[in-house]
Amino acid sequence: MATSILNILIGFPKTESAFFFGSNSNHLKSQTTKLLTLTPKKLTTKCNLTQTNNTITQLQSQTTKQSSKLTELPLENTWRKIHGEDNWDGLLEPMDPIMRLELIRYGEMAQACYDAFDFDPYSKYCGSCKHPHHEFFPSLDLPHIGYIVTRYLYATANVNVPDFFKKSRWPDKYWSEHANWMGYIAISDDETTKRIGRRDIVIAWRGTVTHVEWVANLQNFLKPIYQDIPCPDNDVRVEAGFLDMYTDRQTTDGYCKFSAREQVLGELKRLLDKFPNEEVSITLTGHSLGSAMATLSAFDIAETRLNIRENGEKIHISVFSFSGPRVGNVKFKGRLESHLGVKVLRVYNKHDMVPKSPGFFINETSPPWLLKIAEDIDIPWCYTHVGVELELDHKISPFLIPDVDAACAHNLEAHLHILDGYHGRNREYEATTKRDIALVNKACDFLKDEHSVPPNWRQDLNRNMVKTEDGRWVLAPRPQVVDTHHENIEPHLEQIGILSPK
Q1: pTM (2 decimals)?
Q2: Domain 76-399+457-495 class in CATH
Q3: Which tens digits make up the pLDDT trace of 397-436?
Q4: pLDDT tens figures, 14-27
Q5: Among 352, 420, 436, 445, which one carries the catalytic annotation?
Q6: Which of 44, 192, 222, 448 could share a disulfide with 188, CB 3.0–4.6 Å?
Q7: Which of 144, 410, 417, 423 is catalytic?
Q8: How far, in whole angstroms, is CA 368 from its chain's centroid?
Q9: Which residues, at least 6 apart from 190, have a Cβ–Cβ distance to it below 8 Å?
């Protein structure tokens, strides 16, 4: 993974608020006219930081041309604009430079779920996270991300989502018979909190790591949400497999003794109680299936009113969704957006098939009268997208192969690459942060051959085989998988009316 976008410092005029996104404390003392950029380096996940006067001039010119509204706002209001307070009005067309940086930053948090996941069937740890929580971001070349992982999230295999659950080929060596690692919850550290204007709690969900056809193989029927998540409207429905994955538990397995839902709500309540007097934001992100889980859990958090303080203050909830499928019906969309006030920004590639499913025939593009009839007669495959959309087109990038397979069009690193050079509809691609293009080919074959980056180059050294002192090759041992760092969430679940599983 390339050095995080957080390492970029953008200089604003001295009359404006000093709003920095850099996370290295040594950089915070830089003057507002100083810019650190990422220099491309082939076949590596690391980029060197250099000062380039030409880049300063170009970015300042770009910012002037785009008339970024964010640079005109006082610091305390800026982050709310970024997180959809005004439904991203004026920030996407043309693309605001600060908005772009934040989108890439949260996209990297979602990408971290893929890079950390062990999907090798020959590993006895298949289905788990490769790294302990305290080494999570440094292990992924994101040492200055400025967030602390507080909990890992797990889901059970008893779900109707095809190709999701990954297991080792050696059953006698399972680290867990029933669980898969699903993502993490992290919170901004004190330094980052001061810089971004609030304490940010991030919930990042992992997507599928297999072929993209999983979405076409969904059971594809809508299930009333009130049966699993308290909701006063019995007509609010979501895709059954997503809901099962979010709410199922396996009490005999320590990793999923609590459902993913209970893990999220319990840990979130604990963190909110820990910072009762600070301004807090709740940000959810995910790619593909992870996008669906982020949207569903955002709905749950708001519906459970966890984002309402005792004094009535409402904590802002936003979702940065990448390449996500549709999640629920029209009633789900209405309640999420209008009643609960959750802000969702959907980023997707127009050539990707996943955002077009489920609900291929009846969806938000259908005439209102058809949607009304479908809802009235309870058609089980009537889905609609939520939130504000940001449509990308990978064909604008001169680095990418125009006509590729479905997996490449769906790839998250490719989306981040496109975002780096996206300036608005019908505008040419122009890279802004010198983000390493080699990252695109980490897990696909998308770059043109002229760039000399081999496909699927990100591999574990020797497939995790190491040589012992007696000359034998064996699988490398890994630190204890069990997450002993988790704080007890049972008291917090009881406070919000969720009984502990027996």
Answers
A1: 0.84
A2: alpha beta
A3: 999 999 998 999 999 999 999 999 999 999 999 999 889 9
A4: 333 333 333 333 33
A5: 352
A6: 192
A7: 410
A8: 31
A9: none
